[in-house]
Here is the input.
Amino acid sequence: DQQVKQNSPSLSVQEGRISILNCDYTNSMFDYFLWYKKYPAEGPTFLISISSIKDKNEDGRFTVFLNKSAKHLSLHIVPSQPGDSAVYFCAARSPRINEKLTFGTGTRLTIIP
Amino acid sequence: DAGVIQSPRHEVTEMGQEVTLRCKPISGHDYLFWYRQTMMRGLELLIYFNNNVPIDDSGMPEDRFSAKMPNASFSTLKIQPSEPRDSAVYFCASQRQPNTEAFFGQGTRLTVV
Here is the structure.
């Protein structure tokens, strides 16, 4: 049972435009959400996170939005750059087991120059 | 710090053989995680340790999989006997405390033929 879902396996965006990656979750106990970025032949690296007490967190070109009622979060990248081409994983954590992350299946983002 | 170090980077083995994957976590990190990345399930948690003690091994697919952490600086994931469906990228990650980000190694790409 996939508790964190990324329904788009891939996404292509023109350089300079906005990239929007989506993530849905089913476990209402999740209260902290993270995005990881993964380049080929490397391990995932932490990108940005958001607590459930917020609905938006911004870090430079990256913004994460959380809609708790819809159990949905999204990562916005603007403007998109060629170096953003990677696989993006959404992850969630519950306060009950707050050291453990549940990951989605990932979305491969390709930025077209 | 060198980060999380995994070895080998690539492993090709024949079905039925024993495979051992190795991980050195970041010094001072109390938590160590083993993940498996597949197209279908994304990043799947296999097992994790806190202070060298296994906490949750519910993600270990079968008895053929075992993991140990004999000390704070070393962990192994063993598959015996290996099967072609075990082919995947296996990641080790470490984390200082709950509610902090996890740092991933570069992964071991396992191919069982």
